[in-house]
């Protein structure tokens, strides 16, 4: 997809797919083009070039959107309506039939069970965001598109959304999650697409993006035999009593306990054992810095 707004390029060249039962995270700094990509998918913005397909149909075909649930980044519901009325209105707009008990259940899954009869005008930002999620989910969609679903939520609310996304995934729903909250994405997404200035700066599963893990150890009394044992676990670098072992791509579950027990058996004093992996945040910063240096 490609999209320019006057002199501003929102999307230079972006392509990605989301599969059923998969949560794809769209990450990137402000202005990277995340919302534009989502708006093209939903037929709200027309791309200059390229094509978006939703559940096998062109995104500009309204019928394609019937099975899609969407939480916009910025929205405001009619303040005079109650939460229940907002939900009912959206069910009607979607031309879906969702019995009232199921609508109530949907409000309960977003934690608004006891606020169904309250006017939205009196809702906090976080409560409105929860209602927005209910609107996106109420008609049982096959594809759910969430643009910054947790920006206004407290940590508890974020954990709720995480559980909700995992439940959707279980049901085979495809989820496109657009977020600048990296921790969020790291916890729930199967794959990540990192956008920067309208381009895909990196894409892949988290293990692909984050690379191999390593093990930091602080040891003394390391004999040549113990050194050899360390080297059998992975490539070793050391400085003084600090040892770092680069683990293989898919290390056995027992690799670390076996290594520690063997080292102890060889008379090594083990002061610290710390598995390490760079975080998505560190990786993201690396990727964005590299992509800035490229131009
Ligand atoms: N309606 C619009 N008119 C003009 N420029 C826009 C419009 N929408 C987005 N843009 C520009 O396109 C770029 C990408 O914006 P957006 O997709 O909202 O980014 P993100 O969601 O990643 O923060 C930004 O430079 C933004 O200013
Ligand atoms: Mg946005």
TrEMBL record:
Transmembrane segments: none
Domain (ABC transporter): residue spans on this chain: 1-222
Keywords noted in UniProt: ATP-binding, Nucleotide-binding, Transport
Gene3D superfamilies reported for this sequence: P-loop containing nucleotide triphosphate hydrolases
Annotated InterPro entries: AAA+_ATPase, ABC_transporter-like_ATP-bd, ABC_transporter-like_CS, P-loop_NTPase
Coiled coil regions in record: none
Signal peptide positions on this chain: none
PROSITE patterns cross-referenced by the UniProt entry: ABC_TRANSPORTER_1, ABC_TRANSPORTER_2
SUPFAM superfamilies assigned: P-loop containing nucleoside triphosphate hydrolases
MF-aspect GO terms: ATP binding
SMART domains from the UniProt entry: AAA (SM00382)
Family of the protein in this entry: Belongs to the ABC transporter superfamily.
Name the record gives this protein: ABC transporter ATP-binding protein
Lineage, opening ranks: Bacteria, Bacillati, Actinomycetota, Actinomycetes, Micromonosporales
């Amino acid at each position: 997809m490609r999209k320019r707004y006057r002199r501003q390029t929102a999307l230079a060249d972006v392509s990605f797919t989301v599969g059923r039962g998969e949560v794809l995270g769209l990450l990137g700094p402000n202005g990277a083009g995340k919302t534009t990509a989502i708006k093209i998918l939903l037929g709200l913005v027309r791309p200059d070039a390229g094509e978006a397909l939703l559940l096998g149909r062109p995104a500009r075909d309204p019928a394609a959107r019937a099975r899609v649930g969407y939480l916009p980044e910025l929205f405001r519901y009619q303040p005079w309506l109650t939460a229940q009325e907002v939900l009912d209105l959206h069910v009607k707009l979607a031309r879906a039939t969702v019995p009232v008990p199921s609508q109530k259940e949907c409000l309960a899954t977003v934690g608004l069970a006891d606020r169904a009869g309250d006017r939205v005008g009196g809702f906090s930002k976080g409560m409105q965001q929860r209602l927005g999620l209910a609107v996106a989910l109420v008609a049982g969609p096959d594809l759910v598109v969430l643009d910054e679903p947790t920006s206004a939520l407290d940590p508890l609310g974020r954990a709720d959304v995480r559980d909700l996304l995992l439940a959707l995934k279980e049901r085979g729903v495809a989820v496109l999650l657009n977020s600048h909250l990296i921790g969020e994405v790291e916890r729930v997404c199967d794959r990540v697409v990192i956008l920067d200035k309208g381009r895909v700066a990196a894409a892949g599963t988290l293990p692909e993006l984050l690379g191999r893990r390593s093990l930091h150890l602080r040891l003394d009394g390391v004999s040549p035999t113990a050194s050899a044992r360390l080297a059998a676990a992975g490539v070793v670098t050391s400085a003084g009593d600090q040892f770092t072992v680069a683990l293989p791509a898919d290390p056995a579950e027992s690799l670390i306990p076996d290594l520690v027990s063997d080292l102890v058996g060889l008379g090594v004093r083990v002061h610290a054992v710390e598995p390490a992996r760079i975080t998505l945040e560190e990786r993201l910063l690396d990727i964005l810095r590299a992509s800035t240096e490229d131009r």
